[in-house]
Write a structure and sequence with these properties.
Layout (H helix, E strand, L loop, with lengths): L26 E5 L4 H12 L8 E3 L33 H7 L15 E4 L4 E4 L2 H10 L10 H4 L8 H16 L1 H6 L4 H23 L13 H20 L7 H4 L1 H13 L9 H11 L22 H10 L1
Parallel strand pairs: 1-2
Antiparallel strand pairs: 1-3, 3-4
Helix pairs in contact: 1-3, 1-8, 5-7, 5-8, 7-10, 8-11
């Protein structure tokens, strides 16, 4: 089945459906290490051990002008970025142009992530929330029975209500809220958006403070943690100065969120490995000329994320 005209710039098909069945060598993923929305998908792929079933191509973090996101010519040109392993495209928009409907019908942005079907030569999905949900279970039949990765479920049925409830404010107010503040067209809009961001951070802090577990829902890691991490890890590193969400920092003003973030980075295997601070900082500082016209990348904060301490480890032992 060919895609119909994507609604508002999104393809919303599903792996595991009749038209896009699960296969060990059928799909390809396009991502950027800088993008928090693509980062959600990269983490899910990593934690579910889907690297052998879902290879990736990674765009460079900059420049974005004169054609949009670019691929490296070789995998060694810019560390962490790759060539387009499928089509050897110069730009991400070249990949979009290959997928029905034709370019003249497409109204959206040429964004990452993109899930591509090699068999039918088209985009399956380019919405991060959809893709991470699909990767959560779609490839389970290809994973070893009884393996931790197969049993891992970031959206378990018994937690749907809680996850959906927290998603209802975490996504618009925090994960997307930093962008609303950063790209605010005027002072009044910025003031309003910035306050919403920190209200959501206050809410997250209180939620984490209310229990002793390592995750938002205490004992079980869910998609909430992946979404929150992708924004939290960028907050002090780039959002505070670049998007002017500077009413506080994670490391100095939110002790429970700070320890939560450090635990995910240092102790959940696969999370640190997907995090590239160079890509993150150079993308924002060098691709938003309206915000940072001289494209100077900040040196700080130092370190990018603070180290795991003996006090942190004592806390971790207390709930294990």
């Amino acid at each position: 089945m060919a895609n119909t005209n994507p609604n508002a710039g999104s393809w919303r098909h599903e792996i595991g459906s009749r038209d896009f069945p699960v296969d060990s060598d059928r799909y390809h993923l396009y991502v950027g290490l800088f993008c928090p929305f693509a980062h959600r998908v990269i983490i899910t792929r990593q934690l579910k051990a889907l690297q052998n079933f879902l290879p990736i191509s990674i765009v460079k973090p900059y420049p974005k002008e004169d054609g949009g996101w670019r691929f490296a010519e070789t995998d060694s040109e810019y560390e962490g970025s790759t060539a387009d392993h499928l089509f050897h495209s110069a730009f991400l928009h070249n990949v979009y142009f290959r997928s029905p409907p034709v370019y003249s019908m497409y109204e959206g942005k040429y964004s990452v992530p993109v899930l591509w079907d090699k068999k039918t030569d088209q985009i399956v999905n380019n919405e991060s929330v959809d893709i991470m949900r699909q990767l959560n279970t779609a490839f389970n039949s290809l994973l070893p029975k009884g393996s931790d990765e197969r049993d891992l479920n970031f959206y378990p049925e018994h937690l749907h209500k809680q996850i959906d409830s927290i998603n209802s404010w975490l996504l618009p107010d925090f994960c997307e809220g930093v962008y609303k503040a950063g790209f605010a067209p005027d002072q009044e809009s910025y003031n309003k958006a910035c306050k919403v961001v920190f209200a959501s951070l206050d809410r997250l802090e209180e939620l984490l403070k209310s229990h002793d577990g390592p995750f938002i829902l205490k004992e079980q890691m869910t998609e909430l943690d992946i979404k929150a991490y992708a924004t939290l890890i960028r907050f002090d590193a780039i959002y505070v100065q670049h998007f002017k969400v500077n009413m506080g920092t994670i490391r100095h003003n939110y002790p429970f969120a700070h320890r939560y973030l450090k635990n995910l980075y240092w102790n959940v295997t696969g999370v640190k490995e997907t995090t590239d601070f160079r890509h993150i900082k150079e993308n924002y500082s060098k691709s938003h000329s309206d915000i940072n016209p001289k494209a100077i990348t900040p040196l700080g904060p130092v370190p990018d994320i603070e180290h795991w301490t003996e006090e942190d480890e004592a806390w971790r032992r207390s709930w294990k």
